[in-house]
UniProtKB/TrEMBL annotation:
<protein>
    <submittedName>
        <fullName>Ribose 5-phosphate isomerase B</fullName>
    </submittedName>
</protein>
<dbReference type="InterPro" id="IPR036569">
    <property type="entry name" value="RpiB_LacA_LacB_sf"/>
</dbReference>
<dbReference type="InterPro" id="IPR003500">
    <property type="entry name" value="RpiB_LacA_LacB"/>
</dbReference>
<comment type="similarity">
    <text>Belongs to the LacAB/RpiB family.</text>
</comment>
<keyword id="KW-0413">Isomerase</keyword>
<dbReference type="GO" id="GO:0016861">
    <property type="term" value="F:intramolecular oxidoreductase activity, interconverting aldoses and ketoses"/>
</dbReference>
<dbReference type="Pfam" id="PF02502">
    <property type="entry name" value="LacAB_rpiB"/>
</dbReference>
<dbReference type="GO" id="GO:0005975">
    <property type="term" value="P:carbohydrate metabolic process"/>
</dbReference>
Length: 161
């Protein structure tokens, strides 16, 4: 899978650990930063880079790490076609994919260990949209994504006026 990854200074160490894991699993990575020693790049710049790659379908998924994961998710969700979810455990990761079809995972570098992050990431990558739901719920979830996309388009058009 082609994945964009980025962090701020609070997520840098966790990003580097995650990169090792993803590369060992043969994923293709686009690391948009930050680099070692960079404490100046704000989280919203990194989030924008990853969100743009995901939203324009240049990559399949994105992973963002800041102090809490929340700032990155807020910024990434401003981009059309991006569905970012803060996941602090594997249950949240599974539900963010199976219910919400999230395509960007955000993590908190201040409180997520590399081992936990690996478990969350593996769960998130391996879970499919509508996985483990009954057929009627699967159909409802699939239709909901179409409705959400229409709301999103309408909202972005309204903002451009």
């Amino acid at each position: 899978m082609n994945i964009a990854i980025g962090a701020d200074c609070y997520g840098f160490d966790l990003k580097e650990a995650i990169k090792v894991y993803l590369l060992s699993q043969k994923h293709e990575l686009q690391d948009v930063g930050i680099s070692a020693g960079d404490s100046k790049t704000p989280y919203y710049e990194t989030a924008s880079l990853v969100a743009n790659l995901v939203g324009t379908q240049q990559v399949e998924r994105g992973v963002l790490i800041c102090g809490t994961g929340m700032g990155m998710a807020i910024v990434a969700n401003k981009f059309p076609g991006v569905y970012a979810a803060v996941c602090e455990n594997t249950h949240a990761a599974k539900k963010s994919r199976s219910i919400n079809n999230s395509n960007v995972l955000t993590l908190g570098g201040m409180f997520t260990t590399p081992i936990l992050a690996q478990d969350i990431l593996e769960t998130w990558l391996m879970t499919g949209f509508t996985q483990d739901w009954e057929p009627d719920i699967q159909t409802w979830l699939e239709h909901s994504m179409k409705d959400i996309a229409e709301l999103e388009i309408a909202q972005f058009k309204a903002q451009l006026k």
